[in-house]
């Protein structure tokens, strides 16, 4: 009866302010291109509609060009009908935003800004629950249960929290019952707000964002291809990858006797993928000082390959080995300084900050010594 793509949380115009400009630009570009990616997937899978479950825009006052560019891209994708529903970032009471969207929207864009049935075809009706502000604090899907739709197939569209996994990405309380689809006789309930893909029940899904915007979710960003063959047929849901940028958080746990370079190489993506990868590397465990220096050098050598890279070695403890200090000096002032730093780095009576400072200083000494 219907085949459509379910997506949400495009957050067009997201500034990515914590990153440098040369990183922000490709992140924003990838987000803007998500509209074209969805359109191409709809064409490839013969989907009649693309249903966006809120937060198409990152804020209630995006730049006019961001709205215009999105609407132009949807206009170019004339082979599919788009359904845009407000989320909490672009809620329905942002009157100027939705006025601008109405002005710019082409004929193949349906705006689901009111809690009222929308006919997608002669035998399929969409029931939207558009948020009216940033934190509505109530169940906006309650009206689904009694909505008159005749014999039409019923599809729900909502934005908010079903479970207490973290509520929305901004925090809040769970307000949508996890059994809403069953209670309202929905063939499918398309949800937005949670940026990672998540199945709540047989017919209830969060699509997740088409482009990741942090390291929180470990699944590949995807849209959901939803196929419903008939009024009693279960929804067939297939994830289809959409993400072009890669956010990777990796943990290396060093132990004595392992090769630091090998452990690093095992978690790094291929060289061809690194230019589109943001890498957050966390190193834990314990290592001898020369091994720590070797690892630091290997990380520094790979860092320019990535779009963005951060490493945290604060959780890496020091294995004290007197023989290692001979690398710095067998005797004299440098040896005395190294021994003092080695003691301080492993002295549990000192604060974690003092131990970390001593460990960093000792690593520098080893680095200078190894260069010589």
What is the CATH C level class of the largest domain, in words? Alpha Beta
CATH superfamily of the largest domain: Metallo-dependent phosphatases
Query: What's the arrangement of strands in the largest beta sheet?
Result: 4-3-2-1-11-12
Number of strands: 15
Low-confidence stretches: 166-173
Number of domains: 2
Overall 3D form: elongated
What's the number of helices?
10
CATH architecture annotation of the largest domain: 4-Layer Sandwich
Descriptive key words:
372 residues, alpha/beta, Purple Acid Phosphatase, chain A, domain 2, 2 domains, 6-stranded mixed β-sheet, 10 helices, 31% helix, elongated
How would you sum up this structure, described in words?
The chain is α/β, with parallel strands linked by helices and 372 residues long. The chain folds into two domains: 2-241, Purple Acid Phosphatase, chain A, domain 2, CATH 3.60.21; 246-371, no CATH class. It has ten helices and 15 strands. It has a six-stranded mixed β-sheet with strand order 4-3-2-1-11-12, with helices on one face. Strand 1 (2-7), helix 1 and strand 2 (49-52) form a beta-alpha-beta unit. Helix 2 (64-76) runs parallel beside helix 3. The longest helix is centred in the N-terminal third of the chain and has 24 residues, at 21-44.
């Amino acid at each position: 009866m219907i085949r459509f793509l379910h997506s949400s949380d495009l957050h067009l115009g997201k500034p990515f302010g914590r990153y440098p400009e040369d990183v922000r630009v490709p992140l924003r570009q990838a987000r803007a291109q998500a509209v074209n990616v969805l359109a191409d997937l709809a064409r490839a899978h013969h989907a009649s509609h693309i249903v966006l479950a809120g937060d198409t825009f990152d804020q209630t006052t995006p730049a006019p060009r961001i709205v215009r560019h999105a609407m132009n891209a949807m206009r170019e994708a004339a082979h599919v009908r788009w359904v845009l529903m407000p989320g909490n970032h672009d809620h329905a009471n942002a009157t100027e935003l939705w006025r601008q969207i109405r002005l710019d929207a082409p004929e193949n864009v349906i705006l689901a800004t009111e809690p009222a049935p929308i006919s997608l075809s002669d035998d399929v009706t969409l029931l939207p629950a558009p948020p009216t502000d940033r934190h509505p604090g109530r169940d906006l899907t309650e009206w689904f249960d009694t909505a008159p739709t005749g014999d039409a197939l019923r599809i729900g569209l909502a934005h908010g929290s079903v479970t207490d996994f973290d509520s929305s990405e901004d925090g809040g309380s769970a307000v949508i019952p996890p059994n809403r689809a069953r209670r309202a006789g929905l063939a499918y309930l398309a949800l937005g707000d949670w940026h990672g893909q998540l199945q709540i029940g047989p017919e209830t899904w969060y699509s997740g964002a088409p482009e990741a915007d942090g390291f929180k979710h470990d699944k590949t960003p995807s849209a959901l291809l939803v196929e419903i063959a008939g009024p009693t047929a279960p929804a067939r849901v297939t994830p289809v990858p959409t993400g072009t940028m890669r956010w990777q958080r990796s943990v290396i746990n060093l132990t004595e006797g392992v090769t630091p370079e090998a452990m690093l190489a095992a978690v790094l993506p291929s060289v061809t993928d690194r230019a589109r990868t943001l890498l957050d590397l966390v190193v834990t465990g314990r290592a001898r000082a020369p091994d720590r220096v070797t690892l630091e050098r290997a990380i520094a050598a790979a860092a320019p390959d990535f779009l963005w890279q951060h490493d945290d070695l604060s959780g890496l403890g020091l294995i004290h080995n007197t023989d290692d200090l001979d690398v710095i000096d067998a005797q004299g002032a440098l040896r005395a300084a190294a021994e003092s730093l080695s003691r301080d780095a492993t002295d549990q009576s000192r604060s974690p900050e003092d131990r970390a400072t001593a460990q960093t200083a000792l690593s520098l000494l080893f680095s200078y010594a190894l260069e010589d």
